[in-house]
Amino acid sequence: MTNSNTPALRFGGFEGVWTHTRLADIAQMYQPQTIASKELQQSGVPVFGANGFIGFYNAANHATDQVTISARGEKTGTPSYVSGPVWITGNSMVVNVDSSCIDKRFLYGNLSSRSLKSLVTGGAQPQLTRNVLNEYRISVPPTLEEQRAIGELFADLDALIEQHRAKHANLQQTKTALMQRMFPQDGADEPELRLDEFSGKWQPRIMRDCAEYSKGRGYSKKDIADEGTPVIHYGRLYTKYETAITSVDTFAAPQPGALISRGDEVLVPASGETAEDIAIASALLKTGVLIGGDLNVIRPRQNIDSVFLALSLSNGMAKETLVKRAQGKSVVHLRNPDIQEVEIFFPTLEEQRAIGEVFTNLDALIADEDRYIAQLTQAKAALLQRMFT
């Protein structure tokens, strides 16, 4: 071991220089037997490949808690830590170490703190070989105790991130299940699940009788600025906004003839890659927002709640109708006349608002989890840069 150094951030109580070492000097690397998809089973030991979990396999010589590196495929060079009894298939390289000398969690964090992409060869078929990894050098602290302290920190961070990801997934599943139960399905005139204070049949109405229609104008990606008037760009409906839009974080300079929100619009994309992608709607509840081009703009008439309408268009029978009416191949289009032919079942305005509140509250919880995950991921990335050399 040569080339001594120390990281920028260190736990108190530890001192001494870190030293560089080849991976071959601290670990044995091997690629396990490839398991064919036909060999996978419904139960047994979980099998992990280069891109994650792929199924189950009954094997006596499975591993427990392993550091792996993707050796082939689009994630080549990406390290992973796989907990519990597992079977690693041949697309991943197992980095096998003696736990009495090297802490596995420390090694995983160390490998995650640096880019291994430069070690990848193969061009169109990228791969990472054992010989190349053997010569790769990492820095190691002088004591196993410091390794374990660092490894435990990142293990706790990973566990916290996974906890929030699981909560995020559960909230999404809850939202999907409630959408199925709180809106009429398969020709019914009332939903399976009702809020306590409401009863009675929902009334069908054709969308052409329920709203005024227009199109957004102008504002491509090149018009987006760091300041100015808030603007909705159609692409953000896919990536940013949920059912109700109450704040906008993109801006532009107002153009002549711009369409400006009054705070009760429902927006539906006018084009996209697939019919399913564009058969979605969001309620724009903020006034004074520029509404960009390629957006169908619906302004509901009296006794129709914008959030409820957006939910109805994005789910169930209404969504199926929009999907069928969307036209195109490489680019799919949906026009206001297509939306006008959709039938929606409406309860009273009070029940519409109550249902809208259920889902806006769920969306807020989901957005909170998104922020927690992003913040924890950023914190982990910053610590990886400062706690390893």
Structure description:
The protein has 389 residues and is α+β, with helices and mostly antiparallel strands. It folds into three domains: 17-140, DNA methylase specificity domains (Adenine-n6-DNA-methyltransferase TaqI, Chain A, domain 2, Alpha-Beta Complex), CATH 3.90.220.20; 142-197 and 348-389, Helix Hairpins (Orthogonal Bundle), CATH 1.10.287.1120; 203-346, Alpha-Beta Complex (Adenine-n6-DNA-methyltransferase TaqI, Chain A, domain 2), CATH 3.90.220. The protein has nine helices and 21 strands. It has helices at 104-112, 130-134, 144-182, 236-239, 275-278, 306-313, 316-325, 336-340, 349-387; strands at 2-5, 18-22, 27-30, 45-49, 52-57, 63-70, 79-88, 92-97, 137-140, 203-206, 211-215, 229-232, 244-245, 251-252, 265-269, 271-272, 282-284, 290-291, 295-300, 332-333, 343-346. The strands form six sheets. Strands 3-8-6-7-4-5 form a six-stranded mixed beta sheet. A five-stranded mixed beta sheet has the order 11-19-15-17-13. A three-stranded antiparallel beta sheet has the order 1-2-9, with no helix packed on it. Strand 6 and strand 7 form a beta hairpin. Helix 3 (144-182) runs antiparallel to helix 9 and helix 6 (306-313) crosses helix 9.
